[in-house]
Amino acid sequence: MIKIENLSKQFDKIRALDHVTAQIAEGSVYGVVGTNGAGKSTLMRILAGVLRPDEGSVQIDGMEIFENTEIKRRICFIPDTPYYFSNARVKDMMGCYSIVYPGFDRERFTELCGKFELDQSRKLSTFSKGMRRQVFVLLGVCAGTKYLLCDETFDGLDPVVRQAVKSIFIDEVMRRDFTPIIASHNLRELEDICDHVGLLHRGGILFSKDLEEMKTDIHKVQYVMEPAAEQRLLGELDVIKRETRGNLSCVTVRGSREEILMDIESKKPLFYEILPLSLEEIFISETEVIGYDIKNIIH
Amino acid sequence: MTSKISSIKLLREAIKRGAAFGLLLTIGWFCCYPILGMLFMENSTAYQPIDRQIWMEMAPVILNPFILCVHFGTAVLMGILQFSYLHSREKLDFYHSLPVKREKLFGIQFMAGLFWFAVPLAANMLLFFLISVLNGLGTVAGPLLLKCFGASLCLFLLVYSLTVLAMMLTGKIYAAVCGILVFCLYLPSVRWLWENLKVFFYQTFCPPESMGKFPAMRCTPLALFDDLMNEWGIYGNLPWEKILASILCTALVVILCIFCYRKRPSEKAGVPMAFSGIARVVKFLLAVPSVILIVMLFYVSGYSLALGIFGWAFGLLLVNGLIEFAYCTDIREIFKDRIQIALCAVVTIGILAVFAFDLTGYDRYLPEKEHVDSVSVICSAPMSVDLCYEYTLDSTGEDIQWYQETDQIDSAQVWQTKDLDAAYTLIQESDAFQDRKKRTEDYGPCLVVTFHMKDGTSRKRQYRYTYGASHLASLWEQDEYKEILYPILTIEPENVLAVRVSETYSFYMYRDIFAAPTAAKKAPDSAVSFTLEQTREIFSMFQKDLRKETLQQAEEAARNGALQILFRQEQTGKVYAVTYDLSDDCADTIALLEKYGCSFESSTGINSR
Which one is the CATH code of A214-296: 3.40.50.1220, 3.40.630.30, 3.30.70.100, 3.30.450.90? Predict the structure, then answer.
């Protein structure tokens, strides 16, 4: 369990984190989303023990992280621009990680490199940016740490690789005590990986929720029905957003799927269907409720 | 146990990463030691010199200025390479997220750098030693190489640790390089500036013979560099005490590095100064002496107050602008720190005012008599001679060879008195105690006074007197003082070997001084030769003339030529030569010389006035 309490960090006159409080449960894939400059990287660097917080605390499994090697052994950090030694090959970095992280699984790393078609004898400098990210994700996964911090690591990965990484993450979560924490400015890229998301904005967390929980609570319905019946329906539903195109109406409503369907069916619609909601739409809806104009926050 | 194994593995990894630079160093040391060594061996074994000579000749081969410069540069480069990760966010994210404590990380990086310096050096020195053994010089080269290795290691460690400290305190490479320059040059430069301000502004300031002994001048790795070059490279003496001091300094710097590393915020990678708190102090400490130096340069260029003021304004803006530009690399922000500029302006004006208006009363300082034990006085003018030359006589006793130059007046020869009233009266009549406005630049004699305090310390001042001042007459007329001024007065005529009248004032003693009329050799020029009896008579007369000479005569008398005197010092048996002016006040000596055949108009070509 990662417990962030009242965390603040300032760089000269810029306040990067402003009294952030959040909890990251074990065994989940946690996504930290936010715009550029929202404080994601700062939060990740504090979680990795690179930066010392100005105020507040970060407790990982009940202990402070900064300069605590015992806790740092449980964390592997993949920054937005991962560092590799000059002229290092994949196997050199594996050697380094295996020294630093005693739980490093060399066999699994070799196996995963094979799956991702990454040549271990090749110099990292000759890889493309996306391939380098893949190497570091695999290094992070195989480090055998309990927490894996990925800062913008998935930005730029192609959908196939992203899916592959997702399945590795799920596999790892199932196999052992593993909690990946992924920071990204792109909601769409996190959608298919994370099961818990926190939105960071202007140095503070707007909210932090379980993705499935959010999906079960918000629904998007499009329908065609009589105007009078529609008026009655809108009065009964907890409508977050409504759009109309001719006779076709589309509403985003809060509530359980069953209750919403019951309300709609009772108004005898000519047509209706429940549409899948993207993470972005859920966020727009949730943050608008809080009072933020999310369109200006997320991409 | 796991932790220990991990450290060794981490060190091994760090060493592997420095292999490229290490290989370069190995090639460099190979050229410096085995190759240079072989060249030396070929020359030295050809004529089989004695061990001491080999030692003396081998020392510069092993530790010469070039090699010391290489050591110095290697230490700086190694420090930058090993700790460059502190200046890069990407690298820092990697290193500081590792489950390794900062102290341990520091130790690993530090040791890896040391390894790549020491191991190739030791290997090449070993090779050099083997070559020496094959050439039969093993017994000489072995201890020498061992000492050289130790000395090189000490110099490396000192410079290396200072470079690491500079890397710790900064967040950009250029700032770290500036930091290394500051560590090497700041204190000596400030001390030099301070001394020169005193020379420039204080009339009574007595410049030290050598600034090298000041602690500030020794607070730099360049001092060890200098000692190793001079004491070891030239004289073959390893400065052990300085090497031990350098080891102690290195230890302190390493402790400071670890302390700084613990406190160093990771986010300061890419920022010139890693500790914001000390940035302003550093900027201030750099700006103030630089501005003062610029003011002095401008003022000295025309000795005009307007130029000095312009220099101050120009220096203030230039120096602060440059420092700020180095700090923020934004031309638009070079004058943004107005507090810094204002503070610098006030402090520089304050310091210059203290010197220019003598606000501390330096020139009028006179210690309380009850604290003074005695006073030593040296009068610098009118001095007819200040150097003495030592010669050696050949086996016949009729020829001489120049041996070495020697100081005639040293600290033991100054006039020391406990008559403080007389000394103080003399001092108070000097120009320093006159109205500053009435002072003249037409200075004549100058007294260098050392106050020997009862607490064992001493204070040195110099006092100037205007020409024609009679204050020094009483001092001048004392036999004791005159004997110190003219050491020739203490020489017995029996110890004088020869005299020669010379047309010009020459320090060099020609061999023809022995060309007596009875000698087989004749004087090669028109100089008149004297018999031994004549020589002693002339010398006695010259001593009498010198004793009679008044201060006024000494100041005003015209030169008629020079008298060169060769004498043997009774105590040591050494032969010295001195040259004195033959001025109008030596009338009796001139008359005697004319009696023995010297015609000043004809022989010296100088007409007496």
Answer: 3.30.70.100
User: Given this structure, which CATH class describes domain A2-202?
Assistant: alpha beta
Strand A30-33: give its sheet, edge to edge.
A75-78, A147-151, A179-184, A30-33, A196-201, A204-210
> pLDDT tens, B42-61?
665 554 544 545 555 566 56
Q: How far is B370 from chain A (nearest CA, A)?
A: 59
Residue B401, in any domain of the structure: yes
Quick one: B27 and B155 in the same domain?
A: yes
Within 8 A of A50 by CB-CB distance, chain B residues are 92-93, 96-97, 266
* Model confidence pLDDT, tens digit, residues A229-255: 988 998 888 888 888 888 899 998 888
Mean of the pLDDT values across residues B161-181? 94
Domain end among B321, B356, B391:
B356
3-state secondary structure B113-152: HHHHHHHHHHHHHHHHHHHHHHCCCHHHHHHHHHHHHHHH
**Residue of B208, B163, B153, B212 whose CA lies nearest to B183:** B163
Query: Taking 60 as the threshold, does the pLDDT of residue B575 lie above it?
Result: yes
Q: Which residue has the higher pLDDT, B22 or A192?
A: B22
Question: Taking the domains of chain A in order of start, what are their residue ranges?
Answer: 2-202, 214-296
* B293: containing domain: 279-356
pLDDT of residue B255: 97
Least reliable range by pLDDT among B55-69, B350-364, B472-486, B526-540: B55-69
From the list A11, A83, A100, the residue facing B267 with the nearest CB is A11
Contact with chain B for residue A150, Cβ under 8 A = no
Best interface-test mutation with A: which of B17, B267, B328, B336 has the largest number of A CBs within 10 A?
A: B267
The per-residue pLDDT for B571 is 78
Q: What pLDDT shows up at residue B56?
A: 53
**Whether A101 and B99 lie within 8 Å, measured CB to CB:** yes
Residue of A64, A85, A94, A98 to mutate for B, most B C-beta atoms under 10 A = A85
Count of structural domains, chain B: 3
pLDDT of residue A274: 87
Which residues of A fall within a CB distance of 8 Å from B99? 69-70, 72-73, 75, 100-101
User: Is the minimum CB–CB distance between A91 and chain B shorter than 8 Å?
Assistant: no
In a domain, B300, yes or no: yes
